[in-house]
Amino acid sequence: MLTRIDHIGIACHDLDATVAFYRDTYGFTDAHVEVNEEQGVREAMLKINETGDGAASYIQLLEPIRDDSPVAKWLAKNGEGVHHIAFGTDGDVQDEADGIAAKGVRVLYDAPRRGSMGSRITFLHPKDAHGVLTELVQKP
Ligand code: CMX
Ligand code: CO
Description:
Elements: E1 2-11, H1 15-26, E2 31-36, E3 41-47, E4 58-64, H2 70-78, E5 81-89, H3 93-101, E6 113-114, E7 120-124, E8 134-138
Parallel strand pairs: 1-4, 5-8
Antiparallel strand pairs: 1-5, 2-3, 3-4, 6-7, 7-8
The chain binds carboxymethyldethia coenzyme *A and cobalt (II) ion.
């Protein structure tokens, strides 16, 4: 089952400046920064709530590290802004993806890949989801 909004992904040109904006404007100080080579991004996960149950919601800020990465391509076309939404699963992310694929939505990966903080992730094609790039996330 999809049980929550895990995060909203936002494409930006300058990760440090955008993290500072979210800190100074909204007070989101809990930022986890990592590089995901496979996805071609340096990213920050800003924790929004403090439930402490491992199922928090996040803002994911994404700065491309390669010109051929999905986020670089998207930024060149659209400029900064909301890039994708991500739903959290309570079970196996591949099982969720298989169930959604059976309804005619293209799943972008054959098998889940590594996401932030050790999560397992996959994506649904935006053209099959009313224009929204949609990620599924299973916490480690
Ligand atoms: N949201 C909505 N629509 C999008 C989109 C997005 N983020 N990215 C692309 N599209 C649309 C484009 O506007 C385009 O539509 P038109 O044909 O009507 O112009 C169409 O999809 C094809 O877009 P494209 O620019 O030619 O891009 P590609 O087909 O090469 O790639 C996609 C699109 C979704 C397959 C690719 O972005 C992808 O594989 N995304 C998944 C991985 C990813 O985004 N990683 C970064 C985040 C990592 C993380 O969250 O951890
Ligand atoms: Co994401």
